[in-house]
Amino acid sequence: MRKPSSVVQEWEIPDGLTLLEALAWIKEKKDPTLTFRSGCRSSVCGSCSVRVNGKERLACGYKPKEGDLVEPIRFAPILKDLMVDQKAAFDTLKRAKTWLESFRSDAVVTPKEEKRTELQSDCILCHSCYSACPVYESDAQFLGPFALTRDWRYIADPREGEPMGKIEAIQAKGVWDCTLCGECTAVCPQGIDPKSDILMLRTKSVQSGYNDPNMEQFGSFGLDF
To answer: Which of 51, 41, 66, 31 is nearest to 130 (CA)?
Structure first.
C-alpha cells in the first residue's frame, strides 16, 4: 500500500485488514506521524473517506490490495497526509439552504412522500461525491452534488412552506452547471443518486419559472442567426 507525498511511501501490511485498520496499524507500528480521520468504523459517519487508485472509498469498508495508492479526497485543502479541511463542502450546504426554512405544522407526510426522499436522508456527509465531481476542477464555486441532492430532499418535503427560496438559491453555480456525468452517483457509499436528484431539481426549476441560462445564447426557436 502506498501513501502519496512528495516522495511516495510504501508499506507492507498484514493480511485481512480494512484500509482503516491498516492505517491504524501503520501509525502504531511504522509511522506515528501518519494523520487521517476516522469515527464510527462501520461506514456510518463518513469521516474516513479517501481516494484509492483514483476512486473515492470509505477506508473502514475497503480491503486494500497490493499496489493500492491511497490519497486524500480532492478539492479540499490538505491539512496533513489524508486529513483535509472540509469547510468548503459544508459551506455549499449553507448556500443551498439545505434545511427546513419555514416549517408547515399542518403538513401531513404520507408514506409515499416519506419514501420519495428516504434515500437522500441517508447521506453521511462523506464528501465522496464532492471529491469525484469534475466541475470543481474548473469552478470552485459550484454548489455540487453534495449540496444539490440534499436541497432536493427538502424541496420535496411537504413540510417546507417556502421551497422557492431553495430553488432560487441553486440557480447560480448550481443546478444548471452540472454536466450530468454521474461520477457522484458512482461513488456514493449509500447508493444515493445525485444525478437523478439534480434532474428533478431542473424540472422543479422550470416549473417555478427558471430556465437554463446556458440556453440564453440561442434565439426563441433554439438558434440565433
So the answer is: 51
Model-wide pTM > 0.90: no
Pick from 45, 47, 139, 127: which is nearest to 89 by CA? Answer: 127
DSSP symbol at 72: P
pLDDT in tens, 120-164: 989 999 999 999 999 998 999 999 999 999 999 999 999 999 999
Measure the CA–CA gap between 147 and 89, rounded to whole angstroms.
Answer: 8
Helix (H, G, I), strand (E, B) or coil at 2: strand
CB 198 within 8 A of CB 175: yes
Cα-to-chain-centroid distance, residue 182 = 12
State the architecture of 2-84 in CATH terms. Answer: Roll (3.10)
Sign of torsion, CA 93 96 98 100? positive
Cα–Cα dist 58/36, whole Å? 12
| Residue count of the chain | 225
Domain ranges (residues) in the chain: 2-84, 87-211
Sign of the CA dihedral 78, 82, 87, 89?
positive
Residue 203 has pLDDT above 90, yes or no: yes
Q: Which helix (H) or strand (E) holds 128?
A: helix 128-132
Q: Answer yes or no: are the C-beta atoms of 51 and 73 closer than 8 Å.
A: yes
CATH topology for 87-211 is: Fumarate Reductase Iron-sulfur Protein; Chain B, domain 2 (1.10.1060)
CA atoms of 190 and 210, how far apart (whole Å): 31
